[in-house]
């Protein structure tokens, strides 16, 4: 009986270790191919404890978000190390992040299901309810929305401490986002360059999320049919 239990435990651990080894091998393999195919500058800085869950084989969406550390540091809300710590502390994991100067951080391989969308739904993709992470690539932009869009995170008095230049998006971010979207779509043919497949977090989860918000200019990313 004891021997059987030990064998069961060893077998379970071996299976888990095998799954993680396979996942890590997949990541390594995908990294190699991505490095060959990519035509844009990236800063690779993978988050620790990456989600080892593979995505769906069919990736159909890109989800845009905003993030800052304004709740803790309104005067200087875009320190990279602070933002990275937020991802780690809250166990969230976008694939990419674009800073105010247009630098693109590569935080997680596209082959993994990043934790960026959470619960929500899309009327045209009912089967994706609460599971958009499996079918999407997440991009965070360092930005801050309107006072109303930030009210769940901070008071009006706190919001007023944020310098005006930190509100909204920068020209460099739009340029970098266009380059990144083109790069992503070159590898993921099911992602179409339109407002059905490139969406905001606030469209998927309107009762919970306000990003990328009303200050994000969708006309700046040159979508088809716009």
List the helices and strands and how they pair.
Blueprint: H1 2-37, E1 43-44, E2 61-67, H2 80-90, E3 96-98, E4 104-106, E5 136-142, H3 147-150, H4 156-159, H5 171-187, E6 198-200, H6 201-204
Keywords: Cell wall biogenesis/degradation, Hydrolase
Organism: Mesobacillus selenatarsenatis (strain DSM 18680 / JCM 14380 / FERM P-15431 / SF-1)
GO molecular function, one term: N-acetylmuramoyl-L-alanine amidase activity
Summarize the structure in words.
- The protein has 226 residues and is of the alpha/beta class.
- The protein folds into two domains: 1-37; 41-221, Lysozyme-like (3-Layer(aba) Sandwich), CATH 3.40.80.10.
- The chain has helices spanning 2-37, 80-90, 147-150, 156-159, 171-187, 201-204; strands at residues 43-44, 61-67, 96-98, 104-106, 136-142, 198-200.
- It has a six-stranded mixed sheet.
- The longest helix is centred in the N-terminal third of the chain and has 36 residues, at 2-37.
- It is an enzyme of class 3 (hydrolase).
- Its EC number is 3.5.1.28.
- It holds the Pfam family Amidase_2.
Number of separate helices? 6
Number of separate domains: 2
So what's the overall shape?
Answer: globular
Strand/helix succession: HEEHEEEHHHEH
Q: What percentage of residues falls in helices of 4 or more residues?
A: 25-40%
Mean pLDDT: 85
Structural class: alpha/beta
- Reported CATH architecture of the largest domain: 3-Layer(aba) Sandwich
Question: What is the CATH H-level superfamily of the largest domain?
Answer: Peptidoglycan recognition protein-like
Ends distance:
68 Å
Task: Give the strand order, joined by hyphens, for the main sheet.
Answer: 1-4-3-5-2-6
Largest sheet: 6 strands, mixed
- Identify the CATH class of the largest domain: Alpha Beta
Question: Which range does the strand content fall in?
Answer: 5-15%
How large, in whole angstroms, is the Cα Rg?
A: 19 Å
Oligomer: single chain
What's the β-strand tally? 6
- Identify low-pLDDT runs: 1-36
What is the fold-level CATH name, i.e. the topology of the largest domain? Answer: Lysozyme-like
């Amino acid at each position: 009986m004891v021997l059987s239990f030990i064998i069961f435990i060893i077998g379970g651990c071996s299976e888990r270790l095998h799954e993680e080894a396979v996942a890590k091998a997949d990541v390594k393999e995908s990294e190699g191919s991505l490095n060959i195919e990519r035509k844009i500058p990236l800063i690779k800085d993978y988050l620790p404890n990456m989600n080892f869950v593979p995505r769906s084989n069919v990736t159909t969406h890109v989800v845009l978000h905003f993030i800052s550390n304004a709740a803790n540091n309104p005067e200087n809300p875009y320190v990279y190390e602070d933002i990275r710590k937020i991802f780690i502390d809250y166990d969230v994991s976008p694939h990419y992040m674009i800073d105010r100067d247009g630098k693109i951080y590569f935080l997680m391989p596209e082959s993994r299901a990043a934790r960026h969308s959470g619960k929500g739904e899309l009327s045209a993709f009912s089967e994706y309810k609460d599971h958009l992470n499996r079918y999407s690539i997440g991009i965070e932009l360092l930005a801050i929305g309107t006072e109303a869009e930030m009210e769940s995170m901070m008071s009006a008095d706190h919001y007023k401490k944020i310098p005006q230049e930190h509100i909204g998006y920068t020209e460099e971010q739009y340029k970098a986002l266009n380059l990144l979207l083109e790069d992503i779509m070159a590898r993921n043919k099911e992602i179409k360059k339109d407002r059905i497949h490139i969406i905001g977090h606030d469209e998927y989860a309107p009762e919970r999320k306000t990003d990328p918000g009303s200050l994000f200019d969708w006309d700046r990313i040159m979508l088809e049919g716009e």
